[in-house]
Amino acid sequence: MRQLKFNQMKSFRYLATGLLLSISITACNKIIDIDPISNIGVNAFYRNYEETKAALTGSYNGMQKPLEYEWMLTDLRTDISKQGVANSSTPINFEFNELDMFTLNSAHDKVYQYWISTYKNIRSINYVLKSLGVSYTGGQTTVGEGTAKMFPQQKNQLAGEALFLRAYHYFNLVRLYGDVFLITEPVDPEQSKKITRTPLAECYQLIVADLLAAKDLLSQSPYVSTSNAEAGRATSWAAKALLAKVYLTTNRASSALPLLDDVISNSGHGMLPSFTDVFSINNEMNKEILFAVRFKAGGFGLGNFMANTFAPSSSGSLIVNGDGNGYNFPTNDLDLTYKTPATGSTDARKNVTMGKYNSKLYVKKFLSQVLVKLDAENDFTVIRFSDVLLMKAEALGFSSASVNLINDVRSRAGATDYVSGDFNTGFYKYPTDGSVNEINTADKFLTALLNERKLEFAFENQRFFDLVRTGQAITLIKNHFSVEFDSHYKAYRPAFTLAELQSHLTTEKLLLPIPQRELDANDQIKIVQNPGY
Amino acid sequence: MNSKFYLRGIFLIVFSCFLFSIPGFTQTRVKIQGVVKSASGETLPGASVTVKDSKQGTVTDNKGEFTINAEIGKLLLINYMGYKPQAYAIKSNATVTITLQETENTMNELVVIGYGTQKKSSVTGAVSKLKNENLDEIPTSRLDNALIGKIAGVTIQNVSSEVGAEPVVRVRGFSSISANSDPLVVVDGYPVPDGLSFVNPQDVESIEVLKDAASGAIYGSRAANGVILITTKSGVSDKPRYNFKSYYGFKKPCTLNPIMSITEYTKMLFNEAALRQNDPTVPAANKNIITGPERAAYIIEDQISGIPTDWQQEALQDASIANIQLSISGGKKDLRYYISASGQKDQAILKYSDNERLNVKAKIDGALSKKVNFSFNFNPSYIKTQRPAVNFTDYFRFGSFLPVYHNEFTAAYIHQNSQWANILPGDFVQARHFNGLQYSGTMPDGSIWSSTGPVEPFATSNNTPLSIAARENANQQTYRMLGGGDISIKFLPNLTFKSSLGGYFTQQENTTFTKTGARKDGDINQAVIYTKNYMDLLFENTLNYNVTKGNHNLTGLLGFTTQQTMIKESNMVGRNFPTDEFETLNQAAQIDQALTRTLKDRVGLISYLGRITYDYKSKYLLGLSYRMDGSSYFDVGKKYGSFPAISAGWGIAKEDFMKNVTWISNMKLRASYGATGNNKIPSFSFQNLLYPGNYSFGTGNGDVNLGLSPNADVLANPNITWERTFEFNAGLDLGFMDDRFGLTLEYYNSITDKLLYKRSTQSFSGSFEYFDNSGKIKNQGVEIELTSHNIKNKAFQWTTALNFSANRNKLLELGGEPFQYNYGERNEVYAAIVGKPAIQFFGYKTNGVWTSQAQIDEAKAGGQTSTLAKYFAPGGLRFVDMNGDNIIDMNDRTTIGDPFPDFTWGINNSFKYKGFDLNILIQGVQGLSIINGDANYNETRRYNENFTKNRWVSAANPGDGKTPYYTNGENWMLSDYVIEDGSYAAIRNVILGYSLPAGITKKIGVKGIRVYGSADNVLYLMGKSYRGINPEARVLSSLYSSPLIDGYQRGAFPIARTYTFGIDVNF
Fold it and tell me: Which of B221, B414, B762 to probe by mutation at the A interface, max A CB count within 10 Å?
């Protein structure tokens, strides 16, 4: 009996242990070895043309975010835009003030936001390029064997577009921050701590290499106005035009010229007869647009925010549904620069560029009616044909040919030939007949060129780069401070003098600081801050 | 009742001794057969039966039965741990049933530990127990709120103004810097994510907190933040008992911000202007700097509208709380039940915030045979919460010149602007209505002012808060169901196999409907419907073994559990409905494709566990436990973690040498060491995932092309694994004078290594953070729990329970980095510095303000420079040159405070006098700093006297020399000027009750009636430097959800003072 009892007990034990073991072995792996259901991991993607193309689409999407901040770092720091409400109590207006008046420091949030959102997209692009086998070494961008399987033409197309996007981002970064971190493939957190800033010249080397590769990889077929499902992708023409601007920025006008001539003669792009049509949402990706960051209304999460953020604040639904924020406030100086005489021809660009509500100016270049706040249709133009023309004028320098190029752009805006009268109050083309207002010196030419670019590309985030590129930034922005001092800056409390205001702007301040976070995060190497911060 | 039995027992013993121990009496041996049972009828195996004054004795068998031969006249002594000893006088052969009464001695009460219970006297870890006495009389929507100040080492902080909102619960402070530091909550053995929110306080039998790692280790990977075990009530074998309880209460705010009306504010500005007039250092242009918008606002309030609006009061409502509950319990020996139902409606003092709750609970347990027991429970609940569309800050930042509704004068005035021609008296006022008009009127100094052009008195595009709250409806409904059953089989008398299966299910639905023009003019109506489906299955199998041989007690536990969680979320956004009255999605003109989405997630956990406890005569105690967890949170090869623990105890009071020290009734020394883990990070943090990034291509407006992009903010890391905490705990339990005074002391020292946290990385990698396991943090602390029955007589009783805890944390390592800065929304810095507390505020130390330009010039002449653009401004903050290089720059930032309290404490006093009872809970937190974010926002600091009193005006009127002038100088947020003392002490709760005398209740046919009144937050003392109104409030959303950022508050909501009246009837 006792023996049996013992055996019974033993068998119960075995039974129980056996039960436990059997459950555990069968169940455990299924329970904890699981994959994500809602999102795919990077290691399981980029296998073929379709997937890499979708990832490239994701990289185009990534261009939208930096634009939320780009105007703050460019136009706001020039003579065309300001923080419009002196003594505003809105926190973001403090940040705008710091940019507007060059009093920012390296902890400035928007300086950081632009940085991180741009680098985030560079990562996305680098993943695409990696899967295509594109590498950058020794100043050369080459297409090699990638992990994604596809035909060579497909690969060239994707690689060309991705390289254009990367060059676009780096070009903006170097112009704003100077020496940046040159990341050409996805980096992990440990590697990143060993990377320091790359000298400007080497950064430009990458930008040039990427654009040279892109212009050759992408198809050379000219622009057609017929229905095209691929409109909006980077083209060889866009790459050439951007490369021309890179050359202009790096004082290589002679290298820019052939590219610009190529675009002018062979791209199929050209100016539209009406300036208004260029920005119309019923005419997107028109002949004049070489490249734009595209937005789409309709609740897709792809809408343009500028309609609302730039509309005047507290305007209710009068200007745009959902009210405006009153950001990117046009200066009075810009308002007056557009010639709109009581009689005679007026500058057609003014009405497209800005409006007035309750005596307050606002930007309306990218304003279309929205159903929901921050969801407008307008694309944001990056390279237009008129830019190509004016770049050519810049590359040529002072000459009658270049004056004529300026006049081409002016006449499209409605300027008539100068015969007689007051050039400064009427709206004329620059005379070439030896009149008083003839462009007869290189200085006058530069002034005219910059003036034209200011009017033509206002709020397209070009002004700051134009001023820096031509070396006019300090003079013209200081001048802007004095022009607007009585009407605007004087109202700030505590009050400051014009001299104090102007004193903040030094050559060093033309570069933004490297975000403080970037400096703080690295405990292995000391990252050098830009001088002046 | 119990004491009567006790007296009777003593009497019997004494009487028997006296009667039967007369020498020379004939001694005859008889046979006594008996069974030993508890009062509830359970048989008690292992009870000792001894014959007094002899060596003879036996132990009851597994049926609780015994047989003993003894002489007539002798006394049988029956002893069983946890019960009062009984004596039985032997008269003849007999078969007897001996019923033992449970002792009141706290040392013998059972304490719930993971996967079992243990006598308090045998506990070797740090476990705090709270019996439910009047938790359900504290007027709150949540159980955790009722626990504030009650348990040493457990801090509960109400951070939000919404009723029913989750407080922050921490066990032993900041024990982890991972994504989540919430303790594990286990309801009747079931780990549930929101146990403290849905359990009805009335149903709670007791709450145990496993504080040290050795106690928590049995919960392995989830126990590093402590474990809170909630045990709900069960039925007892008895006649059915009915209980009815109900209370009603109302709430009032304790304190509000000292906000000036525009009239007061403008007068202050004019006073300041007058002061500057006489100050030669002020340039003429700066003497009177009152702006047009300020003057216009004054004119609106003083001369157009006529009445200032107190926006703080407009935010508040007369709130009430009502609760009703009913329970029935009873049963027989083999089937017992407990069923309860309760309903509650709770309103916040903030408008449009309330919480309604319905709870049902049923628990049935019983025996199918002597070997097979079962238990079922079933706990559905429903919670409906209305959430306010705007929080309190949004109210008090609006100037008082804006009325809530237009009156005929304001309406007439704004009609000057044709845009607002349709606005009628009675319509909501919006700031924009007053913009763009010309203003003219009398100023406080009697002068007449007329604007030279259109003025914007308040340039905001936001609607007034009440108009938003009234037109945006946010409701949350949660259906929860916790249920399960278990069966236990006693294979052998001391070997039990238990298998349980449980399910936890919640369905949460959030609906937000925004009417036309709710937030901004031109806003179209919109409905957001979010649902979350959470399903959790738990399967547990355990084998329990316990054996008692003489003085040796051994228990063993083996177990295997699996837990699977499935989470489904969906979000739908529809817009442009034909009317504001319907929010049916198929009437929406547009479905937002970007925001309409679904998400599925799975989490799996499998565990093996084991435990052995041993004690010798309850004197020498030893415990060993082990758990191995495997989790889906980690990559292959990193999934498993093991969590061992060891603990020991020494019951000193039971030693012979202590026998004569009668005033010490209990003395036990405990020590433990164990490992626990933390895996609370988002799923699949070991992989970089792709997220939607669509784009439109094509002629015209283009078509949406689907795209994906690896655009996560946090970089993945395939190497991440468990964060482990190793903790040493030492404890001493003391009882004096028959446990009239009880004292428990705990000391702990824990080290968490392989910290799972979001580490900063270089932003140029595309993300600024990544998950990593590097770093080490140390927590060290003491806890004291003291219970004293100060007065204990029949008529009057006074008991004091005091708890005190202090925790110190120190960052030991941060993956080789000396520090990490984390940034808040205004770029204020939270530094994690190795060798210091894990979060420290980081910024400039201030040294008053620059009182004059002369002072600045002097400093500059002394060589001082600064890279900060606005630094040298009279009336601006002056910073301390920490590194002494005479340059005020970023390098002068230093640590300026931390959000960790020096200590927290609570004192509970309860008094009983005849039918009256009084309970007073006082609680406090001492020695912590907070950042007051209101200081950053002009609207919230402009009209607030706490920021303007004694401020700098001019060189000749420098105020107190410490308060900067409004916008002068550098941003306050970067300095210690916004660091304030977050300490407080509060009389949290007072309950006064009266039980009707039995004579009266008998007449009306009930067992007992008690009526009571309670008051919450009767007195609330705050730190001297604190400029807000609620030191407990914190912002915890977006950036502030980071575990390395804490202590930030903005727009704190007022503390509610609640008065309730209740009745409690027993049938």
Answer: B762
Rounded to the nearest 10 degrees, what angle do helices A200-217 and A236-249 cross at?
Answer: 160
Q: Minimal Cα–Cα distance from A523 to chain B, Å?
A: 6
β-bridge partners, B987: B922, B1019
CB B927 within 8 A of CB B1046: no
User: Which are the contacts of B81, defined by CB distance < 8 A and separation ≥ 6?
Assistant: B108, B119, B121, B618
Q: Indicate the residue of B461, B491, B967 with minimum beta-carbon distance to A313.
A: B461
Q: Is the pLDDT of residue A177 over 70?
A: yes
Q: What is the pLDDT of residues B562-614, one digit of tens each?
A: 999 999 999 999 999 999 988 888 889 889 988 999 999 999 999 999 999 99
Pairing state of beta strands B372-387 and B319-332?
unpaired
In 3D space, the residue among B167, B165, B183 whose CA is nearest the CA of residue B175 turns out to be B183
The pLDDT tens digits of the residues spanning B286-326 come to 888 898 999 999 999 999 998 999 999 999 999 999 999 99
Q: What is the rounded distance in angstroms from the CA atom of residue B596 to the CA atom of residue B590? A: 11
> How far is B166 from B160, CA to CA, in rounded Å?
8
Calpha distance B195→B816 (Å, rounded): 38
Q: Do A517 and B936 touch (CB under 8 A)?
A: no
Sort out which chain B residues have CB atoms less than 8 A from A195's CB and list them.
762, 764
Whether residue B980 contacts residue B930, with contact meaning beta carbons closer than 8 Å, is answered with: yes
Confidence of residue B107 (pLDDT cuts 50, 70, 90): low
pLDDT number for residue B101:
74
Q: Do A520 and B768 touch (CB under 8 A)?
A: no
> pLDDT for B194-242, tens place per residue?
878 888 888 999 999 999 999 999 999 999 899 999 999 988 877 888 9
Is the Cβ pair A55, B707 closer than 8 Å?
A: yes
Q: Considering the entire predicted model, what is its pTM?
A: 0.82
Work out the minimum CA distance from A206 to partner chain B, whole angstroms.
16
pLDDT score for A8: 54
Residues 6+ apart with CB under 8 A from A393: A402, A403, A405, A406, A449
DSSP state of B794: S
pLDDT surpassing 50 at residue B263: yes
Which uninterrupted H or E stretch holds A391? helix A385-396
Question: Which residues from B are below 8 Å from A313, CB to CB?
Answer: 459-461
Three-state SS string over A241-284 comes to HHHHHHHHHCCCHHHHHHHHHHHHHHCCCCCCCCHHHHHCCCCC
If you count residue pairs, one on A and one on B, with CB atoms under 8 Å apart, how many are there? 371
Helices (H) and strands (E) in chain A, counts: 21, 8
pLDDT, tens digit, for every residue of B910-951?
999 989 999 999 999 999 999 999 888 888 888 999 999 999
For residue A7, give the 3-state DSSP assignment: helix
Measured CA to CA in angstroms, residue B369 lies from A11, A299, B487, B516 at distances of: 21, 65, 12, 66
Mean pLDDT of B34-45: 77
pLDDT of residue B584: 86
Nearest residue of B to residue A59 by CA position? B709
Q: Residue B458: which of B267, B306, B295 has the closest Cα?
A: B295
All residues of chain A having their beta carbon less than 8 Å from the beta carbon of residue B936 are 91
**Model pLDDT, residue B363:** 94
Decide if B984 contacts B924 (C-beta within 8 A).
yes
* B347, B366 Cβ separation under 8 angstroms: no
The b/e string for B588-603 (b: 16+ C-beta within 10 A; e otherwise) is bebebbebbeeeebbb
Question: Cβ separation of B698 and A232 shorter than 8 Å?
Answer: yes
Q: What's the CA gap between A235 and A291, in Å, rounded?
A: 8
Q: Hey, which bits of B893-943 come out as E strands?
A: 894-897, 903-913, 916-926, 929-932
In angstroms, rounded to a whole number, what is the distance separating the alpha carbons of residues B474 and B515? 11
